[in-house]
Every structure is written in C-alpha cells, then in structure tokens.
Design goal:
The chain is mainly beta and 741 residues long. It has 3 helices and 45 strands. Helices cover 11% and strands 49% of the residues.
Length: 741
C-alpha cells in the first residue's frame, strides 16, 4: 500500500475528531452573564486548502460537511410592543366570537328544525280540520312547504303525471283550489277569503266566470251558516248549515227555499254519508262510504233508497303492502255482482292493465297502458273482448316530463294517427299554446292560454284549414273574465255573426253586442243589476248608439216591461205577464203618440206552440182575433166592430219560405169578398193579382186587368223577396218576448 495514502487517511481522521470536539463544546456552553464583558470569540482554524490528492481521494464531500447550528442564547428575548399585544388580543377575541357564533348557529338551526316540523304538522292538521265551504279535499296530494314549514301548495297528479288538483295556501289557509283538464287547461277553480281565521267567502268559477258564491256566518261555536248564490241558474239562492266540533266539520246541510235538499256527514276529513232530498224535503237516496281508518282508503260505497233498501254497492280491494287497488266489484240492489274490474301493475307500481268483467267472468273491456323509463304513459288502448278498439291514445313528453304531444289513433288501425295535439309550455308545465291537427296535418283547432292557465283564444278550422269560429277572452288582474268576443265565418272565411260580452268583477254580463253580417241586424244591450246581484234592467241600442228599448226584468230574467223608442223619443210602452211555463199570456200595449191602449191575450197548444191571440181595446171589448199554425204564421184574422160583431175575416196561405201567396177576405156573413194572389220575382219584390168574388180580375200589378195568375210564378224554389216589398202577413209572439204586433 502507498505510505502517502495512509498519511492522508490519518490526517483526515484527526481533523474529523477535532471537529466533533468543537461541536460538543458548543453544546455545553451556558448563556453568558450580561454584566460581565464578553470575551472575544476564538478564531476557528482555517481549513487547509485541498490538494489535488485530497480532492481525488477524500471519502467525504463538502455537501456532507457538518454545519454548526446557531447558539440557543446569547441575548434576552425582546418584549412585544403594545400594538402587537392588541393584535394578539383582537385575534383571540375574533376566535372566541367565531366559536360562539358557530355554537349559536348550530343551536338556532336545531330550534328552527324543531319549529319547522312542529309548525308543519300543526298546519297540516289545520288543513285537515278546517271546514271547507266547497273544497276539493285534496287529502292525499303532494304537499310543498316553505322554510318555516308553512303549507304553500297541495297537488294531486293524474295518471299522466300532470297536475289534476292544486290547492294554494297563504298563512296556513287555502286561498284557491284549481281543477285542471287532461290537457293542462283550467276546468274550474274556487277562491276563498278569510277574516282572521274564519272563512268568510268562497266563489266558484268556470271559464273565468263566477258560477256561484257562498258567504259564511258563524252562528255559535259549532254552527256556521253559508249562503250560496247561483249566478247562472236564474239567480237561485241556497243556504247551508255547517256543524263543526273541535275544529272538524261533522255535518253540512244544504237548503233551497228553506227546504233541505242535501246532507253530508263527515268524520272530520272524509265524507262518510251523502243524503239527497226532493223539493219537499223528502229523502230520495243515501250514499254511505266506508274507509280504512288508518290509511283513509275507500273500502265500500253503498247506495240506498228512501226505504233504506240497497240500490247498489261498490267494494274495493287493495294490496296490503303497496295500498294499490287490486279489484273493484259492483253489486246491484239484490246483492248480485253486476261487473268487476281487476288491476295489474308493473314493478314500478304503474297500472298497466285494467280488465272489466261481466258477472259471469267474461271480459267486457280491457285498458292497457305502456310506460316509459320515467313511469309516464306513452300509450293507452281500450278494446272489447273481440278486439274492437274503443279508443287508442299516445303521449310524448318534453324534457321536464310534461305532455308535449297527445295522439289519437284511428280506432280501426291503432297504429294510424287520426289527430294529434302539440303543446307549448313554460318550464313549470303551464300551457301557453295548443294546436290540434287532423290526419292530413291540417290545423283544425288552436288554443292560446294566459299565465294563469285560462284560454284567451280558441279558433276552429274546417278540414281545409279555413277558420270557422274564433273566440277571444280577456281577463282582469284577478283572472275574472272581462270580455269575450265570438266570431263565426262561412266556408269561404267570410264573417257571418259577431257576438261580444263584457263582464264585471263578479262575472256578470254588463254589455252584450250582436252584429249579424247577413241580415245587417245590430243590437247592443246594457245590463244593470240590483244590490243583491240580480239582473233587473236592460237598455238596447242600435248601431249608432240610439236607444231602441228600455227593458225591466223579473227575478227569473224575463222581460216584464219595456219602453220602445223611435227617432230618439219614447213611442210605446209594453207590459208582459207569463205563465208557469214562461210563456207570455198577456201583453198590455200603450201607444204614447195616440194614447191608444190594447191588451193582447195568448193561448198555446199542448205542445207549447202559439195558437190564438185576442186583442181588446181600453174598454175591454174584443177588436181582433188571430189564429196561428204550427209554424207560427197567422192563418186566420177576424176584425170586430165597436159592438163586438164580426166585421171581416181574412185567411192566409204561405209558401215553403213563409211568404204569403194568397189572402182571402170574407164579410160578416162569411161571404168571399176578394182574393189576392202574390207572385215573387227571382230578383226580389213581388207582383199581385186581385180577384172579385166571382173570380173576375179587379187589378193586376203587372199588365192590367183580365190576366190569369201564373201558378208557377210564386213557387218557393225560384223566388226571393226583400223587406220593403214583402206584405205584412202575420203577427208572431214568441217566448223571447217579441213585441211586434
């Protein structure tokens, strides 16, 4: 071995030992006394300059050289400043506040959750317990709440997954209930108003028009009276008495003119019994409902007559695990099965098949449904046992799960489309437009809706796409109908008739307009109502706004008095009397210009057709009598003198268009005096020939005397007439209060 190499290793070992001793001395050093003068630090020996030999053979590199750590002491720690102390205190305070806030937030959230479920359950109980004026009782709907547990809406969905019933709530009270059609449009709705916790008013609407309203008045702790007014049924008024115990309705009785006509019994939530009575308050029938009390499932419904004899019975069977109905059985009055239905479901509890059987077990009808992966019906088909299709419908859905297309298939070929309807909707599913097309893809119906779901425009078309009818409806801010305009057209698209109605906020017609483009007749009627809401006055105007008639109506809406205007002035006054069939039996007429008074008395056939009219003067003497045929035309007219003796009698004959073709006049001894024959021109107007009692021509409007009448000239097939040229041929009184005499 090279001796120089051994010497170098020895030197390296000695240097390493020296370095380790220095490191141990530094570790044993104590903190120096600051009062004594510090001694000068010893100088560290300089490391030898490495030679080429050491660089080449050194086993330890510079990077592995032990570095000396700084001394742990040597001077007193610095005291923090006041500003630093404040910052440290502020940080501690912020941390403490954050901790307290976190704990408080957790506590508040816990309290809110407790309050949420408590209020939620209380509000739900209040919904069930509240007596409903005319409610829909959506007891099994999907309920939505706000953050604090207050009920906002309750919704029941149909088999297509579309909203069927929706109840809207405010402050725990139902303010509106809406029933939707299958296409998503509004069928009808109720509104409810409250005074504090008490319900004060309910109103029922169809097509935006108020049909009936009901006002509530609490009599005592257990009795509420509801006064119901039917606005579209002869202004009929009913009242109901509601019995409430512990906040739950137990009975509701409806009276008409003081006579009990309906009684409902409740168990606090569900109707358990319905009793119906006749106009004299005698029991007609009774329906009893039996429920599964735990799940409120209808198990049995039995119909009884007045003698408590069963008339019919329906029994429902349910699956115990899913509560899905499995079977519905209908029985007759003898307890024999009439027919029954069975239901089959898929794995998602969707009803895929309903089969109706006869009492002998033969299939009467089978309804099959197909669903998509979202459990929405894509096709529904109903057919008889022999395979005859009763109907077949299909449905497509948008990305939000609402019906976008409803298809009606041909009943013979269930794969061929007969018609289809396309729906435009908002994100929430509300329909904005629907368009129905026939098998040839021609638009046959178009509906537009407002944001509340009411139809604002309804247009129908023929098979060629030409509009035949247009109905436009506008609503006020509360979605009450404000105006409705109806236009009808012929097959060429030309307008035939325009009708318009304006309404007040209670759904009553205030102004009606009728414009007949064919006849040129125009009429505008201004309607006025009593404080109780009954229509009692109407004013009729012409196209120029001039008054034609002022009419007074009774409680049944019949005209009992009218003042007729001519040339801007009152010309006559008429009064009407009706029988129990709403037929005019008497009319009193006053001519304001001459002061003449005439009284008309009318009789009718057993079929309700006008038969005779007798005219009397102011002294009660008969001055004329008319007899009518079944078509309402005067076939005989007798005139009397001042001594009630017959003066003359006329007989009339008409063509198929109701025009007089012959008029015969007889004297007081029933002898023919004259005969007039009328001839109608194809271009309009008429001619006549006047004959004497022996058949001699007395006058001819065409060429003079001595001409024989042309029997073909007055045929109905090639003749026309105008109002100015047609002879006054009859007086007609109809049930619509015609006043032309």
């Amino acid at each position: 071995m090279d001796p120089n190499y051994l010497d170098e290793l020895k030197k390296l070992k000695e240097q390493k030992d020296a370095d380790m001793d220095k490191l141990h001395d530094v570790a044993r050093m104590s903190v120096p006394n600051m009062e004594e003068s510090p001694s000068a630090p010893e100088e560290e020996p300089k490391a030898e300059e490495p030679t080429e030999e050491t660089i080449k053979f050194a086993p330890v590199s510079q990077e592995e050289e032990v570095k000396t750590p700084p001394p742990p002491g040597g001077r007193r720690a610095r005291r923090p400043s006041e500003e630093e102390i404040k910052k440290r205190k502020k940080k501690k305070k912020i941390k403490l506040i954050a901790l307290i806030s976190s704990v408080s937030a957790v506590a508040v959230m816990a309290v809110l959750l407790i309050v949420y479920f408590a209020v939620r359950n209380a509000n739900l109980a209040e919904y069930y317990n509240e007596y409903w004026g005319m409610g829909l009782n959506i007891e099994n709907g999907v309920t939505e709440y706000d953050f604090f547990g207050n009920i906002q809406t309750m919704t029941r969905f149909d088999t297509l997954g579309q909203p069927e019933y929706v109840a809207e709530f405010r402050d725990g009270k139902c303010i509106k209930e809406t029933k939707y059609n299958a296409d998503g449009s509004v069928a009808y709705y109720y509104t409810h108003e409250y005074d504090g916790t008490e319900k004060t008013l309910s109103a029922y609407f169809e097509d935006g028009q108020m049909i009936m309203s009901e006002k509530y008045n609490r009599k005592d702790d257990q009795t509420v009276q509801a006064d119901r007014t039917y606005h579209k049924e002869e202004n009929r008024v009913e009242n109901a008495v509601i019995k409430v115990v512990d906040g739950k309705i137990i009975q509701r009785e409806v009276f008409s003119n003081g006579v009990l006509i309906l009684r409902n019994l409740y168990d606090g939530v569900m109707i358990t019994q319905v009793e119906r009575f006749d106009n004299e308050g005698m029991l007609l029938s009774r329906t009893v409902n039996e429920y599964n009390r735990e799940k409120q499932l209808l198990l049995k419904q039995t119909e009884y007559d007045a003698n408590n004899t069963p008339l019919s019975r329906i029994v429902m069977e349910y699956d115990e695990k899913t509560d899905l109905i499995k079977k519905t059985i209908r029985y007759d009055s003898l307890g024999e099965i009439v027919d029954y239905d069975t239901y089959n479901y898929d794995l998602n509890n969707n009803p895929i098949k309903l089969i109706r059987y006869s009492k002998d077990g033969n299939i009467l009808e089978m309804i099959q449904r197909v669903y998509n992966d979202k459990n929405l019906i894509t096709k529904e088909t109903s057919q008889k046992a022999d395979g005859t299709i009763l109907y077949s419908k299909g449905y497509d859905y948008d990305e939000n799960g609402f019906v976008s297309r409803a298809i009606t298939y041909d009943p013979i070929d269930s794969t061929a489309i007969q018609s289809y309807t396309l729906y435009n909707r908002t994100i929430s599913g509300a329909i904005t437009q629907s368009m129905t097309y026939n098998a040839n893809n021609v638009l046959v119906e178009k509906l537009l809706y407002n944001e509340a779901g009411f139809v604002t425009e309804n247009s129908t078309y023929n098979e060629q796409g030409i509009m035949l009818r247009s109905e436009k409806t506008s609503y006020d801010g509360k979605q009450n109908i404000a105006q409705k305009d109806i236009s009808t057209f012929n097959e060429m698209g030309q307008m035939l008739l325009f009708l318009s109605e304006q309404y007040d906020n209670q759904g009553r017609v205030t102004l009606k307009t009728s414009d007949n483009a064919e006849t040129g007749e125009y009429e505008q009627i201004l309607c006025r109502y009593t404080a109780e809401g009954f229509l009692n006055q109407q004013t009729v105007f012409d196209r120029n706004g001039k008054t034609l008639r002022d009419e007074t109506l009774d409680a049944q809406g019949r005209v009992i008095g009218e003042t007729v205007h001519k040339n801007g002035a009152e010309s006559e006054i008429n009064e009407y009397v009706y029988n129990e069939l709403n037929q005019v039996v008497q009319k009193k007429h006053l001519n304001l210009a001459t002061g003449e008074r005439i009284q008309y008395s009318y009789t009718y056939t057993e079929e309700g057709l006008l038969h005779t009219c007798v005219e009397k003067d102011s002294e009660g003497l008969v001055i004329a009598q008319k007899t009518y045929d079944d078509a309402g035309f005067v076939v005989e007219q007798t005139v009397y003198d001042h001594y009630s003796n017959t003066s003359e009698t006329k007989h009339f004959e008409y063509d198929s268009e109701g025009r007089v073709i012959m008029e015969e006049t007889y004297d007081n001894e029933d002898r023919l005096v004259t005969k007039m024959v009328y001839y109608y021109r194809p271009t309009g107007g008429f001619d006549y020939t006047l004959y004497g009692p022996d058949g001699t021509v007395l006058e001819d409007s065409r060429t003079g005397e001595g001409l024989e009448p042309d029997t073909d000239s007055h045929s109905a097939e090639d003749s026309e007439t105008t109002d100015s040229d047609t002879p006054e041929d009859s007086e007609e009184v109809t049930d619509d209060n015609s006043n032309e005499e």
